[in-house]
């Protein structure tokens, strides 16, 4: 967390910085674990000061500030990072401030409670490698059944675990993988090489549906309250989760089966045993 819907919500929330010029980039005082900044903040500042932001993009779970020399600032929020144009939740975890000049005179802030995020400047050639699908998979909002099958159908991994592989499909994390498989009616423990063509089609369609819904609700703010949109307001999709973090509660589809929780690859998985039954030519992965 944040996953694709949260980063896309942040991207839309900071679109107003387009056509603004970067006056300077500075690391704010913070006594906590430092985030990864590349190159060093003084060198990064020299390379971007005076550059105009031409577009705000997204690649999977990364936000990209495209600059007028074809380079970009790439921000990866990871577990607890936020990209803001409003006052942050607190000053203690504020990491980087991008000071801007332009009609709206708003600065761009990177806040990160746990300090796991990254803040990088990439020249044009390095940026091209990041955008290439051989480095990160196809964006989850655009993925097709054929693309999923091409990258995952031969895998012996459980499908829930495989969907988290950013080289196969970019943007899906633990929360939305569980939601997608519930909508698709697929047991999260099923091996990828057991899935049929129609099942892959349902997974691809569910991916676009669930992520699109989550973006409309501006992402999911969980019980820890960490995720906020660019204006420091909570998302709303957590009120519409079908299975995630609903252990023991009735399934919203069938109504009579309690949501189960298991652990896969050291991550919690939630599913409905009635709506997501095991099927396939191979035994499901425990």
Structure, described:
With 286 residues, the protein is an alpha+beta fold. The chain has two domains: 4-131, Alpha-Beta Barrel (N-terminal domain of MutM-like DNA repair proteins), CATH 3.20.190; 138-272, Helicase, Ruva Protein, domain 3 (Orthogonal Bundle), CATH 1.10.8.50. Helices cover 24% and strands 23% of the residues. The chain contains seven helices and 13 strands. The protein has helices spanning 4-13, 41-48, 124-131, 145-152, 159-162, 174-184, 197-216, and strands at 21-27, 36-38, 53-59, 62-67, 72-76, 81-84, 94-101, 108-112, 118-122, 138-139, 169-170, 259-264, 267-272. The strands form four sheets. The chain has a five-stranded mixed sheet with strand order 2-9-5-4-3, sandwiched between helices. It has a four-stranded antiparallel sheet with strand order 1-7-8-6. A two-stranded parallel ribbon has the order 10-11. A hairpin with a 6-residue loop joins β7 and β8 (108-112). The longest helix has 20 residues, at 197-216. The chain is globular and about 60 Å long. The two termini are 25 Å apart. Residues 280-286 have low confidence and may be disordered.
In short:
By secondary structure, the chain is of the alpha+beta class.
List keywords for this structure.
disordered C terminus; 5-stranded mixed beta sheet; N-terminal domain of MutM-like DNA repair proteins; Helicase, Ruva Protein, domain 3; 23% strand; 7 helices; alpha+beta; 4-stranded antiparallel beta sheet; single chain; 286 residues
């Amino acid at each position: 967390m944040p996953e694709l819907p949260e980063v896309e919500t942040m991207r839309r929330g900071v679109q107003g910085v387009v056509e603004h010029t970067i006056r300077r980039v500075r690391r704010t005082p913070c006594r906590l674990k430092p985030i990864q900044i590349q190159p060093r903040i003084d060198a990064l500042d020299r390379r971007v000061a005076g550059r105009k932001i031409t577009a705000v993009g997204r690649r999977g779970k990364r936000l990209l500030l495209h600059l007028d020399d074809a380079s970009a600032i790439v921000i990866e929020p990871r577990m607890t990072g936020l990209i803001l144009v409003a006052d942050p939740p607190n000053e203690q975890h504020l990491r980087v401030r991008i000071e801007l000049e332009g009609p709206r005179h708003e600065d761009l802030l990177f806040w990160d409670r746990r300090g796991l995020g990254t803040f990088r400047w990439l020249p044009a050639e390095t940026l091209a490698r990041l955008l290439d699908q051989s480095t990160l998979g196809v964006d989850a909002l655009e993925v097709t059944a054929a693309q999923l099958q091409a990258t995952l159908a031969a895998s012996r991994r459980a499908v829930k675990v495989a969907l988290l592989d950013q080289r196969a499909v970019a943007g899906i994390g633990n929360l939305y993988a569980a939601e997608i498989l519930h909508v698709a009616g697929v047991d999260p423990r099923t091996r990828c090489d057991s899935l049929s063509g129609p099942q892959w089609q349902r997974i691809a369609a569910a991916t676009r549906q669930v992520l699109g819904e989550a973006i409309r609700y501006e992402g999911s703010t969980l019980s820890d309250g960490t995720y906020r949109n660019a204006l420091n307001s909570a998302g709303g999709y957590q009120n519409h989760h079908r299975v995630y973090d609903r252990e023991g509660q009735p399934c919203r589809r069938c109504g009579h089966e309690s949501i189960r929780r298991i652990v896969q690859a050291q991550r919690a998985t939630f599913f409905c045993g009635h709506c997501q039954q095991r099927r396939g030519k191979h035994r499901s992965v425990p």
